[in-house]
Amino acid sequence: MKRALLLAAVLAAPGVAWGQDYKPDFNCSADHSKDSIATMLCQNSEAAKHELIFDQTYYALRQIVGKSGWKSLKQEVIADDDALKECVAPVAPSLPDVAPQADATCYIVHMDAITDKYKARLTGAALEEANRPIDRHIEIQQKLIDLGYLRNTSTADGVYGESTREAILNWQDNRSPHQPSGFISDDDADLVLDPYKDNSRSASAHKPQSVSFPSREANASSQPLTTKPAEHEGGGGFGVMLLIPIIIGSLAAFIHSRNKKTYDLTWSLVEREIRAQKKNLQIARTQKLVTDAYGTVQVSMWSKEIGYFLDTRISPIIDERISDQKKKRTLRVTAIQLIERLASEPLETSAGPAYRSDPTTFDPRMNPFDYEQYCALLLRGDGWDAQATQKSGDQGADVIAQKNGVKIVVQCKLYTGTVGNDAVQQAYTAQTFQGAQAAIVATNSTFSTSARQAAATTGVCLIHHAQLVDTADEILRRLSVKTA
């Protein structure tokens, strides 16, 4: 998405031409001469296309987190936006008032990486919507306008904001065979674009049916005024034949009503179970979503947790009442969407169970001093004589470790945000003060660009704590080779 100043102006975009000429999610007719990236996006169709592709994912995730999560999601996007500054050339000293050019290829690479990061949080219909080709994504929005679900003054710009989500929900209430979710699944996409496509609902269910009756004039001219007994019996048979479709229709309506009640009851029980487990799901998500050393959020453990919850708590409710496989899948997908939305809401401070920090087991909630002990224990388990200093005038060394005549110092940073270059400076100072041969900064989080630049200058190793033992052993091996 465009810079933070324009993030709130998404719905002000002009029309987007399908297929070739793409425009970004903001108004290019405004003056953006001071904004290098905005200027580039208004001039470069391919870069604008990737901006819109990000919007697909962002607005799907926005629908999942709900209004209570919009602010935190927006702040997260703004923080990730900093990476795009690398795509802007330095200001020319001779032209300080002229915005430098932005590189479109660099922008596309960084924007695609940000898109993939957020897309990893999506599942089910939300993921199908985010993966859809942008032209088809826009075409569906235009179709909702044509069908009257969106105002005819609306613009199909590829941004599925609140009005588009409301239109999708209304369309799903009227036409979709699935539980309304606000997302356009692949099945729903086909049905929106081709209303008479056989997609679990017969096309005939949406077309008026004509019924032919014998002509009154023909009957008057061909039948006598009096009716013989045999002919009277035939007339009665004709009446019964007319009643058969009515009986069948009534029976079908009864069965449909009964099935719908069963489906609605099942979903009510599923929703009740998910909401009852909300706090546990929030805690599990906090523990299972892990950021690796490259800043990528690893979702595999959280996905497995959702699967386990579905198999043990949700599927038994569904299987006991629903036999139709497609309806089962729909219920599971809708359940996943609700799980993601509720689990993504901020966890209240008092919501978690009583937690006692344990230095032998890593937990993001652990005491920072226990985190230092945890790092020391990792090294001890590998044969290092490692001690956590715990504020003992160590000049920045949280852990001092020695093995085979080699001394290293470790800065331990238990962070929820990004570790900056001050940690690198502290570790380097500690290395000098302790007379150590190497310094390490270990964290559960990630490092800023400035921290990595400082590390490249000072030689301090920046690692995730899972890499601590391997890094220490590599330092030992390298120094041992030099002294051999």
Mean pLDDT: 80
Helix/strand-derived class?
A: alpha/beta
Bin the strand percentage: 5-15%
Taking pLDDT < 50 over at least 5 consecutive residues as the criterion, the unreliable ranges are 1-19, 198-235
Q: What is the N-to-C succession of helices and strands?
A: HHHHHHHHHHHHEEHHHEEEEHEEHEH
What is the terminal-to-terminal distance?
A: 55 Å
Number of E-type strands: 9
The largest sheet has its strands arranged as: 3-4-5-7-9
Question: How large, in whole angstroms, is the Cα Rg?
Answer: 32 Å
Helix content: 40-55%
Biggest β-sheet strands, sense, barrel: 5 strands, mixed
Principal-axes shape call? flat
Number of helices: 18
The tally of structural domains comes to 3
Could you explain how this protein is built, in words?
The chain is of the alpha/beta class and 484 residues long. It has three domains: 174 residues, no CATH class; 107 residues, no CATH class; 116 residues, 3-Layer(aba) Sandwich (Trna Endonuclease, Chain: A, domain 1). Helix content is 55%, strand content 7%. It has 18 helices and nine strands. The strands form three sheets. Strands 3-4-5-7-9 form a five-stranded mixed β-sheet, sandwiched between helices. The chain has a two-stranded antiparallel ribbon with strand order 1-2. 31% of the residues are buried. The N terminus is likely disordered.
